[in-house]
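Appendix B, example 12.
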Amino acid sequence: MSEKTFSLQDSLPSLTVPSVDETMDRYLETATVLLTPEETAKTRKAVEEFRKSKHVEFMQNALEDRAKRERNWLEDWWYDAYLEMRLPLVPFTSVASINPAGVRSSKREVQTLTAAEATHHMMKVWQKTRREEIPIMKSRGIVWDMKQNHVLFNSNRTPGKPKDRMDRYFKTESEGPCPSHVIVLCRGSIWKVEMEVKGEIRSSDDTVRILRHIQHESPQVTYSPITLTTTDRDRWAEARDELAGVCRENERNLRTIEESSFVVTLSDDVCPSEEESLRYAMMGRSETAWVDKCMNIIVMADSQMINQGDHSNLDAIVMLDALNKMGAVMRKGEWKVKESAWQSDLPERFNFQLTASLVTKINEADSQFEKMKHTFRAKVVRFTGYGNDRLKRVKIYTDTVVQIALQLAFYKVHGSFGPIYETASIRKFYHGRTETVRGLTRAMKEFGEGVREGKEEKEQLRLFKKAYDAHNHLMAEATNARGVDRHLYGLRKSLQSLNSGGKCQPKLPLPSLFTDEAWKKSGGDGNFLLSTSFIGYADGVYGYVCAMREDGYGTFYLTQPNQILLTITDYVGTKSDLDAYGREIEWSLNHLGKLIDAMEKYSKL
C-alpha cells in the first residue's frame, strides 16, 4: 500500500534560519550588480553596519528563538504578507489560467456537459485528498511538504481590517466531517449543490441535471453580492459585515459559500481569442467568480474552461496540478447523459437581502472592476524551436535556459537589465512554500552585454556557461532555504515584534540597509521588474499571475518535450512593451539554442 498523502509530514525538517553574515554575503552580491561604484560603496557601508549592529543581533536572536518554538518560523508571517495587502485580489494577487480540457462548441448544451464533468472530477480529487490517496510529491527522492494540498479545498480568504484572515474548513476522513458542497454561479445568482450523496460523489450525469436546472432558473441579477468580492479589501470587509448584519439568512449564505469545496460558474460569454480568454479568466465580469476562493472553475458558453483563484492560500502550481488531474479524465465534447442516474434532489438558490447602502457599494465595486480590467494585458508565447527533450540530451536544465532568455529579452527591449524574481520551492521543509531566486547575477549581465556587443561565438558560449552555472548555484541555495529575501523579511518582522513590546520600551530603528537605494533597485519590497515562475511540465493548464510592478512583466511558463509555453503579462500605459518582450523572448531562446548547438560542436573537437 502506498504512503498516505499526509503521513510523512512529521518527518520533514524544520525551516532553518541562515546566519546574518551568509545572507549579507548573498545580498551584497546581488544588490550591487546594477550599481555605480559610488552607489556600491554606499551599499557596502550599509551592509557592514547591518552585520555589526546590536539591533540586528537582537532581531536575529528573536528570529532564532521563534524558530525553536515553531517548526516553520516563516509560515504565519508569510500569510501576513498577503493578508495585510489592501488591494483588490483581482488582478493583483490572483491566479488566472486556461484549461485545454474545455472544448469550444457552438452547441450550447455542451457547456453543461463540460461543467458537470469538471465538477464531478474535481470532487473526485477532493475525495482522494480526503482519503489521503494523492501521491506524496518527491523531488530527486526528497519528500516534499503536502500542506498546500490540505488547504486547496474548502478554503476562503475572508476580508477583515486591518488584515484578512484565512479560513480553512477541509478535513481528511480521519480528521472528521468536511463540507462537500460546491457553489455554482450563473448570471449573478448563487446556488448550493451538494456533491456527496450517500457517501459517493454525485455522478456527472446527475450533475448535468442540476446545472441545467440552474441555467434555466437563473435570470440576470442586477445587483449581486458576488461583485463585492472584487473590490479592495477594506471596502469588502465593511460591506461583508453590513451584508451579514442584515439578516441571519445572509450570514448563513456567506458562511456556506466560504465553506464550499470550490466554485463553478456558468458564463453566457464567449471569448474570441486566447488573449481575451486569459484576460477573462482574471477579470471577465464582476459576478463571474467569488474571488476569495482558491478555485473558481469558469465554463464559457462555448464550453471553454478557464480558472481563477486566490493565490495567497497556496502556490499556483498546486492549484494547476489539481486542474490537470481533473482535465486528464474528462470526456471531450458531447456525450449521452444517462437519465437513469438522476437523483430527485434540487440545488438551493441563495437569496440575499440587500439594503440601499449595499446596492450603492455593489455599483461602486462594479465600476471599479470595469476600469481595472482594462489596465493589464496577457498573451501566450509558444516557442517551438526546442524543449525538454532536446536539452536533456545535452544535460542542460530548460528552466535555467528560459531564465537567461527572459533577462536577455528584457535587456534587448529596454537597453538595461532589471531585477528578476524566480520562484524556488522550499517544500522540502515543513510547511515550506517559496524562496526568491534573484537571478540577475554579474555573470548574467556580462553574458547579456557580450551578446549585445556581438562577441564571437566561443566567447559568448564561455559567458553563457558562467551565467548558467551562476543561476543553478542560486537555485540550489534557494531550495535549501539559503536565499536573501525570506531571511530579511523575517528579520523585519522580528523588529516589528520587538517594537510592539510596550510603550516604555525604546523603539529600534529600521536598519539603513532597507532605506539604501540598492534595496529597491535590486527588487526589495516586491520591486522586481521581472516576476517569473516555472509551473510544470504537463501539456495542460497554463496561466499567470500579473506583474509585480506597473512597469514590469509577469512570466509563467511550462517546459514541454518539444516546446516552451510562456504566458506573459504587463500593465497598460507604462514603460513596458508586451509585444516587443514576447518577440525578444523568442529571439533569445533561438539564440541560446544556437549556442547550445555550438557547445556540442566544440565538445566533439
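The chain has 20 helices and 20 strands. The first strand starts at residue 94 and ends at 99.
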